[in-house]
Amino acid sequence: MSVPKRLALSALIFILLCAAGLYFFNQYWIHRYDALISKQAGIYRLDPDLVWSIIYEETYFSPWKKGEAGEIGLMQVTPTVGREWAAETGMREFGGRMRSDPEGVLRDPERNVQIGCWYLEKISKDYRDTPGAEARIVAAYNAGPSRAVEWNKIAPGQRSLTAEQFVARIDIASTRAYVSNILERYRKVKASGKR
To answer: What is the pLDDT of the chain when averaged over all its residues?
Structure first.
């Protein structure tokens, strides 16, 4: 085999090995919290695929991320929600820590996913029997429950909005994109049967 052919073959093998390495690293990266997500989603009666899809969109599984409005960790939980969780669940130890060091508490992946799932469950109670509830839950998680209630309003006697109709009513472009991205990913995960 000539030198140019050997170099081309070596380069091809190197490229294939790098691509395989990147693929497997990415699979590890996006699935390393699967057990934690499943556990907390189960506790809070949520679909783990929806929680996974939210984390994918929020931080791509990066627990150190901090949002522009002070959101922290995997699920971009705000200190306000963390304090609310501590107060409502009677977690006094964490209540004190949430006041003195919210970032330290919320950077912990386990605590962050726990609080994020608690908040999602709290939101989801308003939409349990609503078709396309996921769209409303995700919108409320991103823009706040009161905005989701406004977008979901219908006249008495009208049918509930479909998920698509609800998303079309979202008048904040970033929230509409956020909800659409998560729902698209969530549907793909559900259709394939695996994350």
So the answer is: 91
